[in-house]
Design goal:
InterPro entries: BfmA-like_N. This protein is mainly alpha-helical. Helices cover about 75% and strands about 0% of the residues.
Length: about 130
Amino acid sequence: MVKNYKKEKFETLKIKSSVAKKFRRHCKKMSQSQSMYLMIMLDFFEQNDISPYEDLGPHKMMLANLIKKRFNGLIAIIKNIEKFQTKPTAAMMSSLFEVKAKEEKPLILERKQLEKGGAGEKNHLKW
């Protein structure tokens, strides 16, 4: 038990014996004293604003919808980045490489043609 509650006195609650047995088994399974476990359960209900009589179905659906909205927002951000940053950058890079490749090909062809022309012409090349 927590130190703050060691000095408190015990109170009696009237609970049906079948409920008490079930509660004790559950407390043992969770490795908690009965008082602490009951307090943890009450804190859980209060913090999450849940009533034991409420069905958790709507809460689950709201949570699922929230997650879906967040995923849709994330997908929209990624598509935006792809559309305005990645694709234009890739297009610029590919156009640069295409221009560079086009510039290099004629130089290689010219050099081969000049070498075929003879040894005398090779000496007069100006790069």
